[in-house]
Each structure stands twice: as structure tokens, then as C-alpha cells.
């Protein structure tokens, strides 16, 4: 029988987009690596607490504490800091302390990343590109973090600047369509229709799509037509004309 399915390629990571909005993330350490972890966590709308003696905070972390973007516990890590935490990110410069933190996390079944010890990580960070709702993460699975950064920059260079803005509008359009056709039985038709729009329209056209354009979508959807940008505009120009 010929092979119809993808080959399994073990040794990778399960890359997922973990939802931490409103969750408590404990960061141990306040140096450069911690600053990166803190920014990633804030960008994902988590509530961040950093445990680190004040003297150890770098400028960026001290700034975020002063701005009250994060809570600060001014001392070295203690096990009860894990009370109420949903996730732990350790970035201290002492491997023995790191391993102790990892042990405490495992006793409590808390997901943890211990920056300097890959074998003591439930998950790794990756090199991140962000443009509005778009996030691209590159991982080399621990083989070459600097290479991850280089590959991420190469990918970013190939992406048009307006990709994020186009995706914002696709998000609005999908929401509008779900309001128009909320029924579960509409699912396959709705998904095909949106996929076709994403393939047919250029990024520039998606960016230019206005609220009025989106209001015309139900007409086309109900008639099972996948309109081009020009079709939508012909219709919106006509309706402007008749309403005058
Ligand atoms: C396993 C992992 C665990 C984790 O941290 O989650 C890990 C582990 C370690 N990194 C180390 C070193 C460096 N890390 C960086 C940079 C980054 N490291 C990141 C992730 C990861 N690092 C995870 C795997 C990711 C993957 O493989 O794809 C990035 C992508 C994301 C981020 O940290 O947010 C971020 C780039 C962000 C960006 O620029 O976009 C640089 C370069 C620099 O600082 O510019 C260096 C020096 C050069 C080099 O070594 O490559 C060492 C010490 C090694 C030693 O002592 O020799 C260890 C421990 C070890 O390997 O034993
Ligand atoms: N995974 C990664 O991406 C990378 C990991 N590393 C490793 O990550 C670790 C941290 O790196 P940096 O941030 O550059 O170091 P750093 O020296 O700037 O920061 C260490 C921080 O830990 C704090 N700290 C030390 N003991 C503590 C304790 N018991 N409780 C609370 N805070 C404590 C210090 O006050 C300081 O704020 C190092 O071991 C480094 O080798 C380094 C580069 C990249």
C-alpha cells in the first residue's frame, strides 16, 4: 500500500499557543533573561510577579515594577512563592537554586521553564516575531538558540508589513459572519467561504476593507458568492449612489 500519510519525525516539540490571560506567572530572578520572560508574559495578558532582591533588578524589570505593570517581591525565592502560581519561569544565575525551584514546581505539578537547564523545562521559549495578532515562533529545540534568532529575522524580512493589519480585518470579518450565520450546520459553508476570501484577496485589499464593506458581506454569503474586492466596491458604490 502506498504511503498516504505524513511520516512521523520524532524529536520535536509540541508547539502550541498557550493561553495565559489573567493567569499568575511567577518569574524568579530579575536580570536580562527574566526581562524577556516578563515581556512575553505581559504580551500574553498574564499577571506577573517577580521575586528577586531589588539590587538584582535590571533597568527594564525595575521600570516595569515602577510602572506597576508587574508585582515585585524584594527578596530571594522561597517555596511559598509558588502558592497561587499557574506557571513558573526561573532565570537565576545559580544552577543549584534553579534545580531546587524545578523540584518544588514538580512537587506541585506546576508547569515551569528553568532558563539555564533545558532538561528541567516543561517547555522552551523560542524566538518570537510579533505583528498585531500574528505571532511567529522559531524553535531549534535546544540546538541553537542564536540560530533561532537568525532564522526568525529572515522570516520576518519576507513578511509584508501589513500582514498583521490584514489579519485584524479577517478577524472582524469572521466575527461578522458568525453573527450572520451562527448555526452549527452553517460551519462547513462558512469556513469554505472565509478560506476563499483569504486566498482571493490581496493583503492590501484585506487591509482596505472598511466596516461598510463588511456590512455587505451577508448578501454575498447568502447568495453563496465569494466576491472579489472590486465586486464589494461596485456594490458599495451603488448603494451610496441610491441612498443619495
Ligand atoms: C533550551 C532553551 C530553554 C529556554 O530558555 O526556554 C535555551 C537554553 C539556553 N540558551 C542559552 C544561551 C543563549 N540563548 C540565547 C537566546 C535565546 N534563547 C532562547 C531560547 C532557549 N534557550 C531555549 C531553546 C530555544 C531553541 O533552541 O530554539 C530564545 C530563542 C528565546 C528566549 O529566551 O526568549 C533567545 C533568542 C531570542 C531572540 O533573540 O529572538 C543566546 C543568544 C543571545 O542571547 O543573543 C544564547 C547564547 C548563544 C547560544 O548559545 O546560542 C544557554 C546557555 C548555553 C551555554 O552556557 O553555552 C542555554 C542553556 C543550554 O543550552 O544548556
Ligand atoms: N535560556 C536563555 O535564553 C538564556 C539563559 N541564560 C542563563 O539564564 C540565567 C539568567 O541569565 P541572566 O538574566 O543574563 O543573568 P543575570 O545575572 O542578569 O540575572 C540573574 C538574576 O537572578 C537573581 N537571583 C539570583 N539568585 C536568586 C534567588 N535565589 N532568588 C531570586 N532571584 C535570584 C539575581 O538577582 C539576578 O536578578 C543564567 O544562568 C544564564 O546562563 C543566559 C542566556 C540566555
Automatic annotation (TrEMBL):
GO molecular function: ferrochelatase activity; precorrin-2 dehydrogenase activity
UniProt keyword annotation of Cell division present: no
InterPro entries according to UniProt: Met8-like, Met8_C, NAD(P)-bd_dom_sf, Sirohaem_synthase_central, Sirohaem_synthase_N
Catalytic reaction equation(s): precorrin-2 + NAD(+) = sirohydrochlorin + NADH + 2 H(+)
E.C. numbers: 1.3.1.76
Coiled coil ranges: none
Name assigned to this protein: precorrin-2 dehydrogenase
Upper classification of the organism: Eukaryota, Fungi, Dikarya, Ascomycota, Pezizomycotina
